Amino acid sequence: MKTAIATSDYFVMGETFINRHIQHLFGGETCVVCGRFNGEDPLGKPLFTRRGPLSAMDKFRAPFAAAGGALLHGTSRLPFGDNRRQLAAFLRDEGVDVILAEFGTQALVMAQLGNAMNIPVFTYWRGTDASKMLRSRQRVRSYRLMMPRLAGMFSVSQFLLDNLAAHGIRHDNAHVVPSGVDIRRFAPGPKRPGSFLAVGRMVEKKAPHITLRAFATAAKTRDAHLTFIGDGPLLDDCRTLAATLGVADQVTFTGALPHDQVREHLLTTEVFLQHSVTANDGNTEGLPTAIQEALACGCITISTRHAGIPEAVEDGVNGLLVDEWDEDGFAARIAQILDTPDRSALSAAARATAEAKFDNDVGLARVEQIIRETCANT
Description:
This protein is an alpha/beta fold. The protein has 13 helices and 13 strands.
């Protein structure tokens, strides 16, 4: 089935789950509809950019289209005028059979047009779209109005579906399918004792300050090293904090790295750290891909009881969990691992979890099956 993958920004190196769909869904029979094109297209797919320059007539239509969309559909982001016709022509010319909108916010953009063209529309909930966005009454209204327009929806975790349902946003054809990981490429390598890794944007919901302070408390008198991979607004503060805490020689900040280099770190890392918290604006994780990749590589994961993370990390079995913001508890868990001579059982359980739950070939096949069966019955 020819699938149009709708996403906000393209190409984004860190959005491995979206890029995997673009590259492999239904044998790679895909095209891309994006809000912004970032100038790089390594996947070589037919591409339509929604936010191109407006024609003179569309500039005139814009305020009326925005007002009408907000009134009738709860969103001012619907394609209109010349842009809508061009997008419809792209979908027809590409022979699109189904639309998969990555993030619920992108489904808002595509659902009405898909219905008008008799193209089934599915969405994939991943985190911010089903947490932070629910702080807006208008967004909740728009999601509720969108539900009858969707053929089905997927979520990376049950937590997000429950979060949506608590706001009256439900669909009869809803399924939990984690983003998953290529468990053949992400597999345990020889582990460096005392090696710790944290991967992700240095932003509030990742709480890198807590991770750093907890590591400093536990590791200052122990043989351990922490590598942070990622950039973001808190990176410089964390570099300064590491020096202040006296652990600058035990912490490395790499900045953002290509996915293959992240994988190389995971292969040989013993312990993965992710102290995810709910940000002040309500933003949460879904089920972090980085944790799924870490488990596949046999990394013992120390994380928080946050969003879908407990659906992957079982405390005392394949990793350790603490409550959000529990810095002392996080430090104690780091010390516990460092003081455990034989960590092999936790590492083996981590790998077994990934094999059982997060094989992306299995997940991709399930998404395809659900889409096929749904389309066949409509």
